[in-house]
Amino acid sequence: MEFPAEPFRVKVVEPVRRTTREERDRLIREAGYNVFALPAASVYVDLLTDSGTSAMSDYQWAGMMMGDESYAGSKNYYHFEETIRSIFGFRYIIPTHQGRAAENLLFSVALREGDLVPNNIHFDTTRANVLHKRGVPLDLVIDEAMFPEKEHPFKGNMDPAKLEKAFQVHGPGKIPLVMLTVTNNSAGGQPVSMENVRQVSAIAKKYHTPFIIDACRYAENCYFIKEREPGYGGRSLTEIARELFSYADGCTMSAKKDALVNIGGFLALNDEGWMDKAKNLLILLEGYPTYGGLAGRDLEAVARGLEEGLDEDYLAYRVGQVRALGERLDRAGVPFVKPTGGHALFLNAGAILPQIPRENFPAQALVVALYREAGIRAVEIGGLMFGEKEADGSEKYPALELVRLAIPRRVYTSLHLTYVADAVIEIFRNREKIKGLRLVHEAALLRHFTAQLEEVG
Which of 309, 334, 352 finishes a domain? Predict the structure, then answer.
C-alpha cells in the first residue's frame, strides 16, 4: 500500500461536475487569470487551500446540534476553553472567527510602528497584519529551506543564529514578540523540531521577549516530531503538543486547519495585560469574549475537532496521502519541495518554467495551466503573493516560486490525487506551451486575492 487506507467511512457525498477545457479557458480569462475569482462549481479538484475546507465528522455534526446560542457564557464556550487549555496549556483563551482575526488582535496590542516581528517565515495574512500595524516582518528560516530539492527532516526550523543577530542588531526594545509558525507553510508545509522550539524559546527568554506560536497546523507538526525526532517515537501526540506549547507564552490559531472545522480560531496568552486589551478589541470588532464572532455550535465543532485532529491513525493517513502524491510526481521527474509537507505538496514552479521571467509570475502561470487543462485549483506562493515594492517602485521577489497543492482534510480520495498527479505530469511534459502573465490591477496588501492579470504574448 502506498499509504494507509482512509480511517473513516463516507456517509454523505457532494456531486462535482466536470467542465470542458473551452469552459475553463473562458472562465479563467473572465477571472483575470486569478483562480480566487473562479466560481467553485467550475472546479473539479479544489486544492486552493486546506483552510476551512475539511469534512467534519459525525461526532462534530452531532455536537453542532447541541449548540447553545446564549449571547454570553454559552456551555459550548466552556467546552471549547477546557479542550484548548488541556492541549495548549495557556491561561487566557478567547475565540475568534478565524486565525487572521487572532493575528489582528495580537499585533494590535503588541506592536508599535517600526517594531520587528521575527518568524521562521510569515504566511500571507500574518505578514499583512504586521505590515498593517506598520511593523516589519523578519523571516529567519534556516538556509536549507531555500533549496527545494534538499532533504531535511525539519526544514521549517528558524535559524537560532539569525534570531540572536536580530536581537543584537535591533535591540529587544524593537522586538515585542517572537513568532514561530508550525508547520512552516511558506517553506513547503515543513515541520519545526522540538529542539528548535526549545532554542527559539531560550533566546526569547534571554531577551525577556514573549514567544508566540502560530499553531494552525500544530497536530501535523507533532506527528512529524513523533516520526522523525529522536526520543519522541513512544510518546502520544497530545503529550508532544503539551511539551511544544510549554515553551511558549501564547499562540494564535486558525481552527480551520488542524481543528477540522469550516470556521473558527482563537488567541491564547499567558499575559493578562495583553489579554485584557485583546478582549476589549474583540468586543469592538468580533463579539463578546465567550463567542468571539462564532455561533455556539461552531465553538462545539472546534472543541471536538481539536480532539479528532490529534488522532494518530488519521494523521498517518493525512501525511501519507500527501507523501504518496509526491512519490508519483518524483517518479516522473516533476520538481517539488522535498520532503513533502503535512498539508500540501509544493511544486517548484521556478524549476518547471525557467523560461518565464519573474516579472511574468511563473508560479501563477502554472496555477492557470492547472485549472485550464485539468480543472484543478491551486494557489501561487511566489512573486504574486510575496512580491514587495521597493522605494523606487521596482519589484522585490521572494527566493522561491512555488505552487501549493493544499489537500483538504478527509475530502479527496486516493483516486482524486492520482488524477491530480497525472494532470501535473502531463502539464510538466508540455510546459513549454505555458505563457507568462502581467499585472493589470493590484491591491496594496494581499494583492494575490484580488489581482487581475493578462497573458503575455
Answer: 309
Listing DSSP states for 39-90 in one string gives -GGG-SEE-S-SSS-PPPPHHHHHHHTT----SSS-HHHHHHHHHHHHHH--
Hey, CA dihedral for 264, 269, 272, 274, is it positive or negative? negative
177 class by beta-carbon count within 10 Å (0-12 exposed, 13-18 middle, 19+ buried): buried
Cα–Cα distance for residue pair 411/419, rounded to 1 Å: 14
Which amino acid belongs to residue 262?
Answer: N
Domain containing 152 equals 58-309
- Between CA 107 and CA 219 the distance in angstroms is 24
Q: Is residue 40 part of a domain?
A: yes
The answer as to whether 15 is a domain residue is: no
Count of domains for the chain: 2
Spatial separation of the C-alpha atoms in residues 113 and 102, rounded to whole Å? 19
- The pTM (predicted TM-score) of the whole model is 0.94
Task: Tell me the C-alpha distance between 156 and 153, whole Å.
Answer: 9
Return the bridge partners of 184, or none.
190
Report the chain's terminal Cα–Cα distance, integer Å: 45
* Residue 390, domain member (yes or no): yes
Cell (9 digits) for 44: 473539479
Give the pLDDT confidence of 295-350 residue by residue, as tens digits: 999 999 999 999 999 999 999 999 999 999 999 999 999 999 999 999 999 999 99
Residue pointed to by grid coordinates 516589519: 136
| Shared-domain flag, residues 204 and 237 | yes
Distance in angstroms (rounded) separating the CA atoms of residues 90 and 199: 20
> How far does Cα 93 stand from its chain's mean position?
21
Same domain for 325 and 304: no
